[in-house]
Design brief:
Mean pLDDT: 91
Number of helices: 5
Strand order of the largest sheet: 3-2-1-6-5-4
Distance between the termini: 14 Å
Helix content: 25-40%
Low-confidence stretches: none
Structural class: alpha+beta
Radius of gyration: 19 Å
Largest sheet: 6 strands, antiparallel
Length: 240
């Protein structure tokens, strides 16, 4: 019993620290974006944010153990050059320069990627606070099961959203290395009941816990007790 409790606390701390570090660095970049836009009399042009390519490349490489890509989605109508604009980079497997991810932003196109309707953008813009969205399959984005961490960058022209993608495989690695338990079954759950990670091969990441599953929960530990709104995940053990 005590060993399980220690494992849960250890795992919660490892996940909270790892993901919290990502949030903290992303918020620093967002603060710079806000600072660039605030003094401008007119809406800044895209060139004013040229520093993001360098800053986000550094950010992606620094957190490559967790994230696979990062970028910024600008508030609609905030740039003189285009009504919508999204800049996203994906990390290189070798740790080199991140590569640009192309998104079709033409509303007339069949492959139009309207980021303004995506939960990660809409929720962050509406709340004005950091959020963790998912797990979900980012259809039209990188097309894998991911979690997107987002932070707002408020400006006079609107709220831009900076985000980064975590694959479940990378997050599961942090979970399993910290947990070091095969029994009992431990599941990392998102706020909607989606499975983020588990030490039981029969419980797949991305699946939804239903009411019958929740009846089997024995213990529950918040991953981020200090900031549950930013990271509303919990670890649960299941009865045999």
């Amino acid at each position: 019993m005590a060993a399980t409790d220690r494992a849960l606390e250890r795992t919660a701390e490892a996940i909270s620290t790892s993901v919290g570090g990502v949030f903290d660095d992303l918020e620093k970049i967002a603060a710079t974006v806000s600072a660039v836009a605030t003094p401008a009399q007119d809406a800044p042009r895209r060139s004013a944010y040229a520093f993001l390519k360098r800053d986000l490349a550094t950010f992606i490489n620094r957190h490559s153990a967790l994230i696979v890509g990062a970028g910024i989605a600008y508030a609609p109508g905030s740039l003189p050059e285009a009504p919508l604009w999204l800049e996203w980079w994906r990390g290189a497997q070798t740790g080199g320069e991140p590569r640009w991810v192309t998104h079709d932003l033409n509303p007339e196109s069949l492959n139009y990627y309207d980021y303004t309707t995506r939960e990660w953008f809409a929720t962050t813009s509406a709340k004005g606070s950091p959020v963790a969205v998912g797990p979900y399959v980012d259809i039209g984005g990188i097309n894998v099961n991911i979690i997107t961490l987002c932070v707002p960058a408020p400006t006079p022209q609107g709220t831009h959203v900076l985000g980064c993608d975590l694959t479940l495989a990378k997050l599961e690695g942090v979970f399993l290395r910290a947990l070091q338990l095969q029994d009992p079954t431990v599941v990392l759950l998102g706020p909607t009941g989606r499975v983020i990670a588990s030490n039981n091969a029969r419980i797949a990441s991305g699946t939804l816990f239903v009411e019958e599953d929740l009846k089997q929960v024995d213990r529950s530990v918040d991953v981020s007790s200090m900031s549950p709104a930013r990271l509303p995940w919990r670890l649960v053990t299941l009865r045999a």
